[in-house]
Design a protein that fits this description.
Helices cover 37% and strands 23% of the residues. The chain is α/β, with parallel strands linked by helices and 395 residues long. The chain has a domain of 220 residues: FAD/NAD(P)-binding domain (3-Layer(bba) Sandwich), CATH 3.50.50. The strands form four sheets. A seven-stranded mixed beta sheet has the order 6-5-14-15-16-13-17. Strands 8-2-1-12-19-18 form a six-stranded mixed beta sheet. A hairpin with a 4-residue loop joins strand 9 and strand 10. The longest helix has 30 residues. The structure holds flavin-adenine dinucleotide (FAD). The site of flavin-adenine dinucleotide has 34 residues, from helix 1, strand 3, strand 13, strand 17 and helix 9.
């Protein structure tokens, strides 16, 4: 019997993971990527236990852990440097079987790309149109035309696949704040653990990376499209806003190369009524882009990838398989989108009485309660695998 053939549109974390998951289950895959190379911009990424569980299903958790730093503890501080809440990350590994791992995005992408046959990777292949000609999906791209058994739309927030086949879907929604991201040079004495500081309408966070570096991120409530035009100007803006924040923020900023500051407006996607149409499935940000407040966008994309391949393996009927994928993934991911947006709104509070109330509530919340509230998100296991904790609760 000829191998089933899948075209994956987009070679980001979600697309590559989907390609690996399908290929491991006997599919022939091609990954059409617009960019000339399969790589990611230079910043870090947090992978929570649910993402490690998905990578484990792909046989890649060990390789990713080896390239990352295991985050031992973290939490949120106020503007005076006092802890508002703490997280016990050692407890994560005990409860959910995997730790929280932070690594460079480019390293994660490389592990995924290297798990695929080189001839399945098609850089410089921007997808221009996707349609159904009555016999199945047709994908037009810069390198020609593909007529696969399955199309996976993993082409991100501004997905061309979604635009073509979900014309009624609302566009992305601006969160009300951009994010700055940067990686420090190696530090003589890097902080032993990560943390985020919450101010009035501004936040600054950092996590440990391998090689004595730190991955830092910051937000501020601002209109969309108000970027300053150059990394150096953004760096100056970061110094102005956060240069006098509690330690170690000033030292971290001093260790950031001024030309390496990234700034992106943050968006999420209003809920789609379905992630699947015919033999086309949306996955990752194309299906459920979320704000990064929970650090779950890529984690959910990895879960999508493993689940999609599992559903297709369960039945020879692709339409039924995609319906199962939609039923398993849509409610869960859309709940994470909502939760992430809520956390962002709380984190961005600026009115002093509201900030005081927020900080007091955070200080009074026990560590165990924070962990319990995250359990439905973090306890995910691949379909068919033994459950960890209460994984079927809604996130
Ligand atoms: P993308 O990464 O957007 O990849 C889409 C790919 O498709 C790209 O390579 C693009 O070039 C390609 N493409 C687009 N259009 C076409 C086309 N027409 N034809 C061919 N190719 C095309 N998530 C976490 O889990 N942990 C974190 O710590 C975390 N931090 C974040 C911090 C910030 C500031 C932001 C903005 C996001 C963060 N996320 C995090 C979310 C995470 O980055 C995304 O959810 C994840 O990268 C989505 O992957 P994806 O493959 O679905 O989409």
């Amino acid at each position: 019997m000829p191998k089933r053939y899948a075209t994956v549109v987009g070679g980001g974390i979600g697309g590559l993971a989907a390609a690996v998951a399908l290929q491991r289950r006997g599919w022939r895959v091609e990954v059409l990527e617009r960019a000339e190379r399969f790589t990611e911009i230079g910043a870090g990424i947090s992978l929570w236990p649910n993402a490690l569980a998905a990578l484990d299903a792909l046989g890649l958790a060990g390789a990713v852990r080896d390239l990352g730093a295991v985050e031992t503890a973290g939490g949120v501080r106020d503007l005076r440097g006092r802890w508002l809440s703490r997280t016990d990350n050692a407890e994560l590994a005990r409860r959910f079987g995997h730790p929280l791992v932070v690594l460079h995005r480019a390293d994660l992408l490389r592990v995924l790309a290297e798990a695929l046959p080189a001839d399945s990777l098609r850089p410089g292949s921007e997808v221009l149109a996707v349609r159904d000609d009555g016999h199945g999906p047709v994908v037009e791209h810069r390198g020609g035309e593909s007529r696969p058994d399955l199309v996976v739309g993993a082409d991100g927030l501004h997905s061309a696949v979604r635009g073509a086949l979900w014309p009624e879907a609302a566009g992305p929604r601006y969160a009300g704040y951009p994010a700055w991201r940067m990686v420090t040079e190696p530090l003589d004495e890097p902080p032993a653990e990560g943390a985020a500081t919450w101010g009035n309408g501004e936040r600054f966070g950092y996590t440990v990376l391998p090689g004595r570096r730190m991955y830092c991120f910051a937000t501020a409530s601002l209109p969309p499209a108000s970027a300053l035009g150059s990394p150096a100007a953004e760096y100056a803006e970061l110094l102005r806003r956060f240069g006098d924040w509690p330690d170690p923020v000033p030292a971290l900023l001093a260790a950031v190369p001024a030309d390496a500051v990234l700034r992106h407006d943050l968006y999420d996607l209003p809920p789609l009524r379905t992630f699947v149409r015919g033999r086309v499935a949306l996955l990752g940000d194309a299906a459920h882009a979320m704000t990064p407040n929970l650090g779950q966008g890529a984690c959910q994309a990895l879960e999508d990838a493993v689940t999609l391949a599992h559903c297709l393996d369960e039945t020879g009927d692709p339409a039924a398989a995609l319906r199962s994928y939609d039923a398993l993934r849509r409610p869960r991911t859309q709940a994470v989108v909502r939760r992430s947006a809520r956390l962002g709104a709380v984190g961005q509070l600026a009115w002093p009485p509201a900030v005081l109330l927020r900080d007091t509530a955070a200080r009074l919340t026990p560590v165990r309660a924070t962990l319990r509230s995250m359990t439905p998100v973090l306890s995910w296991t691949p379909p068919g695998a033994p459950a960890t904790e209460t994984e079927n609760e809604s996130p």
